[in-house]
Amino acid sequence: NPDDTFILTDFLKAVLGEHYNFTIESVCLAEPVILPDSTDGKQSAFDVFCTDSTGRKFIVEMQALANNWSKERAQWYVSKAYSDRVKRAQKYKEAKQVFLIAILGFNMFPEHDRYISYHTLRDEADHKMYFDGLGIAILELKKFKEQNPDKFNENIEFWFSFFNQYQEKGVIDK
């Protein structure tokens, strides 16, 4: 449905576009399951998995309740999706970026009060991003609701409010 991808595109632009300084023209939904490499491997199933016109991959995951492995699962999802971008006989430089947006109904990072945080691979000394293939954006709905911010762009506020309402109605899976 073209309307679904328009809405998804708007959401991705609001969350990632300005921060990573790129434009997202359109997206198409992809198969939300990545099968394991072997019979004893782990399968990944995403809430939303899509690709933009440049080949970048986007995973959107929603989690209402905290668990002990949320950080590890976020890393697994984005690294597994990234490693699956390079097939046999392809060059590594042909791998496209993969971004995970995790929409959480709990506070993953109680040590800070930011309701949206961006995580990448950066050099610890100069903080430059030399490895730009992976990115994770964490949206903590509980912090947004507590802060009711007025300093962020309106589009981000719209999406936070939208997901907060859905969480309150029990639409976001626990």
Structural account:
With 174 residues, this protein is an alpha/beta fold. It is built from 4 helices and 8 strands. β5 (57-63), α2 and β6 form a beta-alpha-beta unit. α3 (141-147) crosses α4. The two termini are 27 Å apart. The relative contact order is 0.15.
Number of separate strands: 8
What does the overall shape look like? globular
The DSSP helix count reads: 4
> Over all CA atoms, what is the radius of gyration?
16 Å
Helix content: 25-40%
Major sheet details: 6 strands, mixed
Low-pLDDT windows of residues = none
Report mean pLDDT, rounded to a whole number: 77
Element-by-element helix/strand order: HEEEEEHEEEHH
Biggest sheet strand order reads 1-4-5-6-8-7
Distance between the termini: 27 Å
Proportion of residues in β-strands: 15-25%
- Oligomer state equals single chain
Provide a compact summary of the structure.
The protein has 174 residues and is α/β, with parallel strands linked by helices.
